[in-house]
Amino acid sequence: MKKLSIESLVIKKVDKNTELMKSLLNYVENFSWAEVKEHTLQVIGNWEFEDWETPFAAMIDGHIVGIVTIMKSDYYPLPDIYPWISTLFVSEEYRGNRISEQLIGFANRYAKEIGFDKTYIPTEYIGLYEKYGYYYIKDIVNYGNGVDRLYAKDLG
Fold first, then answer.
1. Cβ pair 118, 152 in contact under 8 A
2. How far apart (Å, rounded) are the C-alpha atoms in residues 123 and 128?
3. What are the residues whose beta carbons fall under 8 Å from the beta carbon of 151, sequence distance 6 or more?
4. How does pLDDT run across 88-104, given as a tens digit for each residue?
5. Which fold is adopted by the domain 6-117?
């Protein structure tokens, strides 16, 4: 794990057909989260984002070290619940530097700026997102019939 000064971290909104989008595709192509890799490559590569949906890239010295997206739908049949903080991933060698916290915070500020008062995160873990101000709502069933926990954060 590489320790770094959090001041060297830059988070940027990724826009369609930009060099940053190409870099993000390359990052996802090479990251270790096999379960979501193909889907994420498809969503970014085909730019399946609508309206306010977008990815964000965490960068250190011009290199992407993490990603998060804000989406209207996620891997759950819950059309009335959004926006979702999704696809949160930080490269293993950069974990422990609070980059996930910075990515979530950036996505939440974006959500608030565009008019949302709450965001949602699904997870199988207990105790992971509570430290970022999220609270448990209920168990939810995903499209693969797996059960996850739904958390929300008030952006007030």
1. yes
2. 9
3. 120, 121, 122, 123, 129, 130, 134, 135, 136, 137
4. 999 999 999 999 999 99
5. Aminopeptidase (3.40.630)
Per-residue pLDDT reduced to its tens digit, 110-136: 999 999 999 999 998 898 899 999 999
Instruction: Count the Cβ atoms, other than its own, within 10 Å of residue 144.
Output: 6
**pTM of the predicted protein model:** 0.92
Helix, strand and coil percent figures for the chain, each rounded to 5: 30, 30, 40
User: What is the DSSP secondary structure assignment for residue 106, as one 8-state letter?
Assistant: H
Query: How deeply is 23 buried, as exposed, middle or buried, from its count of CB atoms within 10 A (0-12, 13-18, 19+)?
Result: middle
Q: List the chain domain ranges.
A: 6-117
What is the rounded end-to-end Cα distance, in angstroms, of the chain?
Answer: 34
